[in-house]
Design a protein that fits this description.
Protein kinase domain-containing protein, 6-stranded mixed sheet, Transferase(Phosphotransferase), domain 1, 2 domains, single chain, Ser-Thr/Tyr_kinase_cat_dom, globular, Kinase-like_dom_sf, Phosphorylase Kinase, domain 1, 335 residues, alpha+beta, ATP binding
């Protein structure tokens, strides 16, 4: 599916027509999705985008920490580089994050479109991203114990279940540890929806796309347990994991040493087995994210030594703006 096809599908599903030039007549439609914030306010909140407020940068733009008036939380302001391609990604994120809300999806606070400026404003996540915790730089000491790792694994899975198994379908398409943000309690928030695809229902083609998210989740789960950076050529990774000589025992020998010998070995073996299922070469052999979530909950119960039903999918996990009945519980159906 081309970028233009994705744009048309998004526009049709949301009942809007947009021009990527973001003309003034287009702004009221966007204001239905999220709060419009002036560039002057964001400029002041970041102290003129001062470098000491810079908390991240990449191919899309720069991310700044900001304190906005009338908000009871810190914000993270993404200032996109001036590019037509990035304008489309900004639009996609705004459309999806503006309409759909979930505990494991990064909260969008607002947006700014003025002249050539394109900015999105998110709730600030004080513990940064998962990649930096798993691969600290410059001899930093960052430790994620097993409890936090399984909490993060479950939270990301819960978010993907909500995206995949709802009365709509969203394919993230770019899941990785650097786009998993962590709040003060290490609750994970999936971010980076610039390349996401939205569908009102799923067919055979969409189901294949879902399995791509499942595969990437499997890589993420292995990264969580092994502590290794798997962002290598796709075929190289597939060959290593699916090779007949690569057994669970082989993978266990590569487990992050900080997790070994702490009474969690049985749970680690179970997580490795789940991850291997997610990265099977044939997409049809991979589990759905709902199946993965249920397996992770079984592992969590073993970890606690008791039945633990605290991580259930409730109506608060499946709300989105514009839904008429706040009390209705959306049925999660396995595809």
């Amino acid at each position: 599916m081309t970028g233009e096809d994705r744009r048309r599908k998004l526009e049709e599903e949301h009942g809007m027509r947009f021009d990527y030039s973001f003309s003034s007549g287009f702004i009221p439609d966007l204001e239905k999705l999220s709060t419009r914030i002036s560039f002057t306010a964001l400029n002041n909140a970041t102290e003129s985008f001062d470098e000491h407020n810079l908390i991240g940068f990449g191919k899309k733009g720069k991310l700044y920490k900001a304190k906005l008036p009338y908000y009871d939380c810190l914000a993270a302001v993404k200032r996109f580089y001036n590019s037509r391609c990035l304008v489309k990604q900004c639009f996609s994120e705004l459309m999806i994050l503006g309409k759909f809300k979930h505990i494991n999806i990064v909260p969008l606070l607002g947006f700014c479109i003025e002249s050539t400026e394109r900015l999105l404003v998110y709730k600030y996540m004080p513990n940064g991203n998962l990649y930096d915790w798993l691969h600290p730089m410059n001899n930093e000491t960052k430790i994620l114990d097993f409890h936090l790792r399984i909490k993060i694994a479950i939270g990301v899975a819960r978010g993907l279940v909500w995206l995949h198994h709802n009365n709509f379908l969203i394919i993230h398409g770019n899941l990785c540890s650097s786009c998993i943000l962590l709040d003060r309690n290490f609750e994970p928030k999936i971010s980076n929806f610039g390349g996401a695809m939205f569908f009102s229902k799923s067919g055979s083609k969409e189901l294949r796309l879902i399995q791509s998210d499942v595969y990437k989740y499997g890589v993420l789960l292995l990264e969580l347990i092994l502590g290794q950076d798997f962002y290598m050529p796709k075929e190289t990774f597939k060959e290593r994991i699916s090779h007949p000589s690569t057994t669970i025992d082989t993978l266990y020998r590569a487990v992050d040493k900080s997790l070994i010998g702490r009474g969690n070995d049985a749970k680690i073996f179970s997580l490795l087995d789940i991850a291997r299922g997610c990265v099977k070469p044939l997409p049809d052999e991979r589990p759905t994210m709902l199946q993965v979530y249920k397996m992770l909950m079984d592992v969590k119960k073993i970890n606690n030594g008791i039945e633990d039903y605290s991580e259930t999918l409730t109506e608060t996990d499946t709300t989105f703006t514009g839904f008429s009945d706040d009390n209705i519980e959306l049925e999660i159906i396995e595809i």
